[in-house]
Design brief:
By secondary structure, this protein is mostly beta strands. The protein has a single domain, classed as Immunoglobulin-like (Sandwich), CATH 2.60.40. 6% of the residues lie in helices and 42% in strands. The chain has one helix and ten strands. The strands form three sheets. A four-stranded antiparallel sheet has the order 1-2-9-4, with no helix packed on it. The radius of gyration is 18 Å and the shape is globular.
């Protein structure tokens, strides 16, 4: 296979931190799907509270440049294992995958295990006081 992966998992304070290096040995860019193999939901890197592009609750999808590498890291609630993630599939990056998730669905799935913040619930809405 032209795509290979090296990964490691380390437990810290009840959270497992996973690192992975994905290598593309072919002479063409490749789209890859990296799936979490641990029990628990993937907690991807975030920027301003929003999951980085390519991440969902099961793993990562992105492009590895020809003869290039891609470094990934995420947190998970599951216990560490020798192989915390795997390459689920690879394909030509020009091809559109029929089962591809929408960005909204991915963002929603990342928060499904958490209750909404108080500011987003009816009980949590604040009323502005009226001027007297």
């Amino acid at each position: 296979m032209s795509i290979s992966i090296e990964s490691a998992a380390t437990a810290r304070d009840g959270v497992t931190l996973v690192t992975a290096i994905v290598r593309n040995e072919s002479d063409a860019d490749r789209r890859v799907r990296i799936e979490n193999e641990l029990d628990g939901v993937v907690r991807p890197p975030r920027l301003d509270g929003v999951a980085a592009d390519g991440w969902d609750v099961d793993g990562f999808e992105g492009v590895v440049a020809k003869r290039g590498t891609l470094a990934l890291g995420y947190a998970c609630g599951g216990a560490p294992s020798a192989e915390p993630c795997r390459v689920a599939w690879t394909e030509n990056p020009g091809r559109v995958r029929a089962r591809r998730r929408s960005r909204t669905r991915c963002a929603t799935s990342l928060t499904r295990d958490r209750p909404p913040p108080a500011s987003h619930t009816r009980e949590g809405t604040r009323r502005r006081s009226r001027p007297r």
